Amino acid sequence: MLATRKGGCGKTSLAVNLAGAAASEGLSVCLVDCDTQASASRWALGREAVDRLEREQTVAGLECQLASMQAARETVLRQFTTCAHEVRSWPDLLVVPAAPHHRLDSVRGLALRELPVDVVIVDSPPDVGAAVVGAAIREADAVLAPVIPETFGLEAAPEIVGALHDSGRHDLAHSIRFVVNLRQRRALHDAVETVLRHQFGEAVSRVVIPSAAQVAESAARGAPLSRFAPKCGPAKLIAELWLELDSQRRAAKAAA
Fold this sequence. Notes:
Elements: H1 11-24, E1 29-33, H2 39-45, H3 47-52, H4 59-65, H5 73-83, E2 85-87, E3 90-96, E4 119-123, H6 131-139, E5 143-147, H7 151-166, H8 172-175, E6 176-183, H9 187-200, E7 204-210, H10 213-221, H11 225-228, H12 233-255
Parallel strand pairs: 1-3, 1-4, 5-6, 6-7
Antiparallel strand pairs: 2-3
């Protein structure tokens, strides 16, 4: 799950490219878009396609149909088949699109662990105080919080930690990964990254994602970097970040 309080930190770009990196490893992946802006959905399916979707074909339909955690597995699979759409550029990757401007009440009813895929990546709404984010944090094996290395980005990090604590997760090293995103060669970025690592230690990923034109091109193409530019620097770093997160995911499953 990706969560952050600060807009413009590249959360959705990371979500879709991590989904692509996981799919490149031979895993079946579903990206669940819970952000009311529906940016990930429009990236995956195209703006016009998302605007044509009926409510029952979106995450709102999944929420409505699976409002009870006791929903039968057959119901979960049937509604998932209705809501999961193939990404236009990569049929092996699925997305459950957002319903634009629809605010989810919770993801508890989405039965994320019952979905018939290896990996579920949730692109959360920016409000870390929302009930949907708290429920997603409880459901997630790991939370990834991108931080842009600027003062406002650093100030947003403790709010994510607060949301983790409110959800009953206190072991930061095994619950969250902060990742420095959109980094540039600037003295301020150096200083903010140093403070972040000092403050949160092992909870900060060793991978740093730079600000790069290829990431913007990924959004324009509607394709993950692993699809059209797998050998570029950002693609390799995102693949490395996925392997780090996957290791954490597997450890969480083993401990469960």
